[in-house]
Design goal:
The chain has about 325 residues and is an alpha/beta fold. It has two domains: about 160 residues, Bordetella uptake gene, domain 1 (D-Maltodextrin-Binding Protein, domain 2, 3-Layer(aba) Sandwich), CATH 3.40.190.150; about 120 residues, Periplasmic binding protein-like II (D-Maltodextrin-Binding Protein, domain 2, 3-Layer(aba) Sandwich), CATH 3.40.190.10. The protein contains eleven helices and eleven strands. The N terminus is likely disordered.
Length: about 325
């Protein structure tokens, strides 16, 4: 073989090596996290516009470009229906590339999977962070005979089934929380479901039901104007305006009942991308504009990282399953 051929073959070999290295690098860039995100991200909100979950999502999306690598943006996409399960199902089916994320809540994540009507379970997602939690409160009309929790509890114990209460719907967080309270206290109440917090409250104010068990953000205007009286808060915290109202934990009743909202992604999203999303949204959660927006709806940022948020989801899933089993709603 002459010298010219040797040089030619050596050049060809070098070209092949460079080409293979380039292909490897290109594959790493397109399938890895080096440039993530290099295009806008879609955030699925499994409810209609205007609710707590949607407002929280839009508040975060409004500032996220300041904290996301490459200044990327997040577009909020509402996919409502099925008590939140349609949107969460779409998140479950999404590609695990980090470009489809979702705002998830306790109902569709930890209650609905027990009903046998959805294909997903909590372990099919990776929690990114919790962003807000809202306690629930039992309210009655201001002229009702129950002045406080103890009077109410004495009454419902002595009159099984007589006290009827409204919620936002069957099988959602408020309903399951009240069922859990009955299990813990040995009482029997009558549930009357409505399609949302506002009609549930109107039914109580109109005398169609004795009480309404709704989120504090929904009840606060009626509590503050004196038309409704709060009897207890079910949650892990309570708003300052309800500082004199007992939490269930104050009464040694082990029921939490927060309606939490957080960000999750499909389970096959790489951990490196989860970290990027977590760090970006944590900073956005602390942004003054987001804090102010949350305050306007009577909520406050409640941060939990991936591990703590996962523990909350798992605990609620187990507890809700036990309650649903006890009341015959678990499939």
């Amino acid at each position: 073989m002459n010298k010219r051929k040797l040089v030619s073959l050596a050049g060809l070999a070098l070209s092949l090596v460079i080409g293979l290295a380039g292909c490897s690098g290109a594959g790493q860039t397109s399938g890895g996290t080096a440039n993530y995100p290099d295009k806008p991200i879609q955030m699925i909100v499994p409810f209609t516009p205007g609710g707590t979950t949607d407002i929280a999502a839009r508040a975060l999306a409004g500032v996220i470009n300041k904290y996301m690598p490459n200044g990327q943006t997040v577009a909020v996409i509402n996919k409502d229906g099925g008590g939140g399960t349609i949107g969460v199902s779409e998140l479950f089916q999404a590609k695990g590339d980090g470009y489809t994320i979702g705002m998830v809540t306790s109902g569709p994540m930890t209650i609905k999977p027990h009903g046998g009507q959805v294909a997903y379970k909590p372990e099919d997602f990776k929690p990114v962070l919790e962003v807000v939690a809202t306690p629930n409160v039992l309210i009655v009309k201001s002229d009702s005979p129950w002045k406080n929790f103890d009077e109410w509890l004495d009454y419902v114990k002595a009159n099984p089934g007589d006290f009827n209460y409204s919620t936002t719907g069957t099988g959602l967080t408020q309903h399951i929380t009240m069922e859990s309270i009955q299990v813990k206290t040995g009482t029997k109440l009558t549930h009357v479901p409505f399609n949302g917090g506002s009609p549930a409250i109107m039914a109580m104010l109109g005398g169609n039901v004795a009480g309404a068990f709704v989120q504090t953000t929904e009840a606060m205007p009626y509590i503050l104007d004196g038309t409704a009286r709060p009897l207890f808060v079910a949650g892990t915290f309570k708003p300052e305006e309800l500082k004199d109202v007992p939490m269930l934990s104050d009464k040694k009743i082990d029921v939490r009942g927060d309606v939490w909202t957080g960000i999750a992604v499909p389970k096959d999203v790489p951990d490196e991308i989860v970290t990027i999303l977590h760090d970006s949204f944590k900073k956005a959660l602390e942004d003054p504009a987001v804090v102010d927006q949350f305050k306007k709806i009577g909520a406050a940022p409640v941060y939990k990282g991936p591990a703590d948020f996962k523990a909350i989801i798992e605990q609620d899933y187990q507890t809700n399953g036990e309650v649903l089993q006890a009341i015959g709603l678990k499939k």
